[in-house]
Amino acid sequence: MKTINYVLTGLGGQGILFMTKIFATAALNKGYSILGAETHGMAQRGGSVVSHLRIGETRSSLIRAGAADFLLSMDESEAYRYLPYLKKGGKLFANAPSDAFPDRKVAAYLEKNDIEPRAMEAAKTAMELGSPRSTNLALVAFYAAFGFGPLSADDLRTTVDNMSPGPFKETNLKIFDACYDTGRKMA
What we know:
By secondary structure, this protein is of the alpha/beta class. The chain has helices at 16-29, 76-81, 104-112, 122-128, 135-144, 153-163, 166-186, and strands spanning 4-11, 34-39, 48-55, 68-73, 86-95, 116-120. It has a single domain (4-186), classed as 3-Layer(aba) Sandwich (Pyruvate-ferredoxin Oxidoreductase, domain 3).
């Protein structure tokens, strides 16, 4: 398998590291090799957080600019900040209003680089379903609906099921299923 590169971004407290753990655990459960790295910056104060996850055989945990297959961002501004990491033909998933994303100022860049942007208001959906802290799961499920990459929606949902503590399991799976359905309607 060729190496698949994920860059996950957001702000401190949005669950970027937990989101990365979901992808990494699902990949390990399928028998894939992984390497990853995180940069926390001023995460405790709501600063930028970026996580690199490489699935497949690789020697370095960091993803160079122009090499990421996927960029998942919990924050619209962070999605724009880390766009240079996406390769030509990469896929962008953001927690943002789908009718206003991407900003017209970056649309030409996306088109020139054949980058496919997709967005849903993951935070709003998680809030409506009673668990605003599960916005990260909402974005993972939205991504899963498009069927890209080496991990299936079933792989990711099973991982969420196994990783969710008892009292949160039902809510987490409800959010996963609802956001997966949202993504399927857009796919």
